[in-house]
Amino acid sequence: MKTNLKALAGIVLVSALVAGHAQTATTRAHTAKRSTPAKPSVESQIESLRQEMNSQIQSLKQQL
Questions:
Q1: How far apart are the C-alpha atoms of 14 and 20, rounded to whole Å?
Q2: Which tens digit of pLDDT belongs to each residue from 40-60?
Q3: Distance between CA atoms of residues 41 and 39, nearest Å
Q4: Which uninterrupted H or E stretch holds 36?
Q5: What are phi and psi of 40, to 5 degrees?
């Protein structure tokens, strides 16, 4: 009898966790789409890093 009760309690706990996670994930997806600003593209990030690296190289060359 105790084993059946433990199994039932486990099933209830797991189903509650899964339902809670599904509800939270749906809520996050809706709010994330509305509130997140557009991120810069990968190309623009690479170009920015390339420019920064080139300026650092030029600075080091001048120091030498």
A1: 10
A2: 789 999 999 999 999 999 999
A3: 6
A4: none
A5: -65, 150
Residue with tokens 């339902």, as numbered in its chain? 19
Q: Retrieve residue 30's tokens.
A: 């809706």
Q: The dihedral of CA 19, 22, 28, 29: what is its sign?
A: negative
Question: What is residue 38's three-state secondary structure?
Answer: coil
Tokens of 35: 């509130």
- Summarize pLDDT for 2-20 with one digit per residue, the tens: 677 777 777 776 777 677 7
Amino acid at position 47, single letter: E
pTM metric for this prediction = 0.39
Residue 42 and residue 22: Cα distance in Å, rounded? 31
Q: Which residue has the tokens 């899964």?
A: 18
